[in-house]
DNA sequence: GATTTTGTCTGTTGAACCAACAAACTAAGT
DNA sequence: ACTTAGTTTGTTGGTTCAACAGACAAAATC
């Protein structure tokens, strides 16, 4: 991770002075403890290459800022004086993520340790509501989350909003959200107004991007620290894609990257929401699955049901071994692999993560998907890419939003807490 | 650009001390002068935010290392004492790039200012030669380039080899190069042996990746410094893709990214070299163009002709307004746009660069290509992506190889020159 | 000569480093 | 049980290095 850099990794480096040097090393120690767990000062010094005295000084400052705390004595080493464990102090600082999606609003607050302080999701038929009314309700949820953080005496690192559309990250303006039926709208400005011009940072980002970030954090715990490249596919009505490349979220030149749903891979068939035919999401979106697996008058297609109830219905049938359901799932899995192979050939990720409804139905999708990828990827052994289900479900984007707010604290710990 | 980082941007930051602080600021000043041109110390201080005294000290060290030199007096400002211009000293340090391709070997040496010291290309029918024999000949070219650098009394920053295949960058091992007919081979080790275990760094990288890097440097001069995201498409027998995202070369988890030639976008037609049908390169590769534009017994298809002679033939006919040629070019342009739109939707680059034969025939390909992209990209206005021809032609990869060696000097100027 | 700008010089500050050391513990010997 | 040697931890005092701040001589214009 950069030290003195701004947000753009490609930019010319920035001149550094003693302050940035200190900031860097504070960040190094803090992230070291986050990633590798509680450990003594001596061990931190050994592992980071910093001097023992320096580590002591850095830890003291981080403790004063409420980011680290001293824990128990370390009895793991046999000989010598036992060290005092230093661990992440989750209680002090929290980040909040909130999400607008087609049929729900959601919010999450995470503390510095990544533990969930509050998580809430309410069904809302956003497409049939005025944007203003939706934002009113979202602001209510954000206020609840902020209140929960304040009730814990926590400082708020920031709030990040996830939107399923094209977002200009720098300004927080939404350009287009076809699934919501929204056009241009300055979401950041509207929300700042509704939240009473708050002092904490408020950002807006693409839903799939934030979900990818959450999956990245989730999977580094499982797949290991050497995992740096990931593609997340979230299945919903459409298909969203988020890319982490070299440990950084890939946003593209104008923040419009990851629009994978409209790759023209399918044979000309159903017309897509974008007006064309042959789009990937016409064969792997939830609608496509329902059309393949059920008849028009099937009870799972009842408009009164929400996504999760429909998925529960499909899952039940698949578990019972219903032939038509299984065949439809295999079909979707194969198409998922055909598009997935394109992504793997272009991006060569370490893992391809299934999110949203793909994660729920993962057990049935995974096998045909992996087969299709193995057949189509040019690199030996599928480029070493594994297919993995995310456990975060529909909470991935809000988690990612909370995390990206917290990440700023890890990059620059001096943002938080009293000055020395 | 990072400061204290290793090669992997996602890795945990590295502890910094006074030495890395100095290294960073040396790098900042050096890159500042490279990117913004000659200027006085006072101006560098003003623009970078460093102190005047600090800049003096940094410049002195960079001059001592042979990376900067003092130029003329700056008479641009009206009032006051004129400054002494400080400029890049190209003469001291050079980087070398070399390339193995299907029908030629090439080498280039660039100095620190980016000026060409030597550039050479020799036709070689690599596919019908033993790999060992090819490497022997390549080693000869590299020795020529090194000799040219030494003749100028220049220090060699490094040598980078470009190969049209899947390369493991860390080890320098080639995994697969279908167009050469090569399998697994440790190119780095073989070349080090042939060059007599040289002391300078020797790396191996994918040809399209290096070409993308060269195009990035080329276009930042034209498109401006705010350009950070680029996709390069090199047309040859196949199609290669290179991606620069956020100013960094995107390599993927195992270095296998950018394999765009086999996206299944075309209708089932000719069988591709990979054994499947419908691959992108079956409709946009040079062979596809020749099949569309000419009959079997057409003189441009004469096996005695090389690529450039064939292209010259096609160009001549297009300029003369030959209907069949123009129609074939329009066709290829449209298919180029269909695949290109996928890349733009996924990666949202600032520019899509045409390299290799696409650049040569760019005038005829560009219009249908842009039309196809505009129609298929979801983001407004094609995601702000422009289509641009590269002027580097078939020298892009060697230039990129030389540049990536030189880049190391800009990141850490203390690698070069006498210690203070 | 007054003014403005450049670049150097002197001294200060801040942060990391180094070496020494007291504290806290284990293990072995008496 | 008590002592002693050996280990490891974390702090302290002093050193080093690099950036900074301000003063100032030099070199130009007006």
How would you describe this protein?
Two copies of one chain form a homodimer. In chain A, the strands form four sheets. Chain A has a five-stranded mixed β-sheet with strand order 6-5-4-7-10. The first copy, chain A, has 420 residues and is an alpha/beta fold. Chain A has three domains: 71 residues, Winged helix-like DNA-binding domain superfamily/Winged helix DNA-binding domain (Arc Repressor Mutant, subunit A, Orthogonal Bundle); 137 residues, ATPase, nucleotide binding domain (Nucleotidyltransferase, domain 5, 2-Layer Sandwich), CATH 3.30.420.40; 171 residues, 2-Layer Sandwich (Nucleotidyltransferase, domain 5), CATH 3.30.420.40. In chain A, 41% of the residues lie in helices and 20% in strands. Chain A contains 13 helices and 15 strands. Chain A binds a DNA duplex (30 and 30 nucleotides) through helix 1, helix 2 and helix 3.
């Amino acid at each position: 991770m950069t030290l003195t850099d701004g947000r753009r990794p490609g930019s010319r480096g920035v001149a550094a002075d003693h302050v940035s040097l200190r900031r860097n090393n504070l960040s190094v120690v803090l992230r070291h403890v986050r990633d590798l767990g509680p450990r003594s000062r001596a061990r931190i010094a050994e592992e980071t290459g910093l001097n023992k005295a320096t580590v002591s000084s850095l830890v003291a400052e981080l403790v004063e800022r409420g980011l680290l705390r001293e824990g128990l004595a370390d009895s793991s080493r046999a000989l010598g004086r036992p060290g005092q464990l230093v661990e992440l102090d989750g209680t002090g600082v929290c980040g909040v993520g909130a999400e607008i999606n087609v049929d729900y609003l959601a919010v999450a607050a995470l503390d510095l340790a990544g533990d969930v302080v509050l998580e809430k999701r309410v069904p809302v038929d956003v497409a049939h509501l005025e944007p203003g009314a939706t934002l009113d309700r979202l602001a209510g949820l954000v206020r609840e989350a902020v209140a929960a953080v304040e009730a814990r005496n926590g400082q708020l690192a920031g709030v990040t909003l996830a939107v399923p559309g094209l977002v200009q990250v720098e300004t927080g303006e939404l350009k287009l959200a076809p699934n919501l039926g929204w056009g241009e709208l300055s979401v950041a400005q509207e929300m700042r107004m509704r939240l009473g011009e708050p002092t904490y940072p408020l950002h807006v980002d693409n839903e799939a991007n934030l979900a990818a970030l959450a999956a990245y954090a989730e999977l580094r715990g499982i797949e290991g620290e050497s995992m740096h490249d990931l593609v997340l596919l979230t299945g919903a009505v459409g298909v969203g894609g988020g890319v982490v490349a070299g440990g950084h979220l890939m946003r593209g030149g104008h923040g419009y990257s990851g629009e994978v749903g409209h790759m023209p891979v399918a044979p000309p068939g159903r017309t897509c929401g974008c007006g064309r035919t042959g789009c990937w999401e016409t064969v792997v979106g939830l609608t496509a699955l329902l059309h393949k697996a059920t008849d028009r008058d099937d009870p799972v297609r009842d408009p009164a049901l929400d996504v999760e109830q429909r998925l529960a219905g499909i899952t039940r049938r698949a578990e019972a071994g219903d032939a038509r359901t299984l065949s439809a799932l295999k079909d979707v899995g194969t198409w998922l692999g055909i598009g997935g192979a394109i992504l793997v050939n272009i991006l060569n990720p370490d893992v391809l993560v299934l999110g949203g409804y793909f994660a729920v139905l993962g057990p049935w999708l995974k096998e045909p998907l992996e087969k299709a990828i193995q057949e189509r990827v040019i690199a030996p052994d599928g480029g070493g890419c594994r297919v993995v289900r995310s456990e975060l479900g529909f909470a991935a984007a809000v988690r990612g939003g909370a995390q990206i707010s917290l990440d700023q604290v890890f990059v620059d710990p001096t943002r938080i807490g009293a000055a020395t």
